[in-house]
Design goal:
single chain; 4 strands; alpha+beta; globular; two-stranded parallel ribbon; two-stranded antiparallel ribbon
């Protein structure tokens, strides 16, 4: 998992990043992990629906239940 963060740590060496593994429902675990965060970055698949872009249940929960700013980043 730390390999995923490696290029970002090189690009932004002064930005603290944490990689953790937790068991449980994705939305619940993510909201709990973001409790003390200043920014939460979550991914969104690039799937388009008839009514717009679908965020997914975990991203949707993060947008509505975390106490910090949320950046939603599209990915394939």
């Amino acid at each position: 998992m730390t390999g995923v963060l490696r290029p970002w740590r090189r690009e932004y060496p002064n930005v603290p990043m944490a990689a953790t593994v937790a068991e449980g429902r994705g939305a619940v675990v993510l909201i709990r992990a973001a409790r003390d965060a200043g920014l939460l970055v979550v991914g969104r698949r690039g799937i388009e629906h008839q009514i717009g872009v679908h965020a997914g249940p975990v991203t949707h929960a993060a947008l509505h239940h975390v106490g910090c700013a949320v950046a939603v980043v599209p990915h394939d």
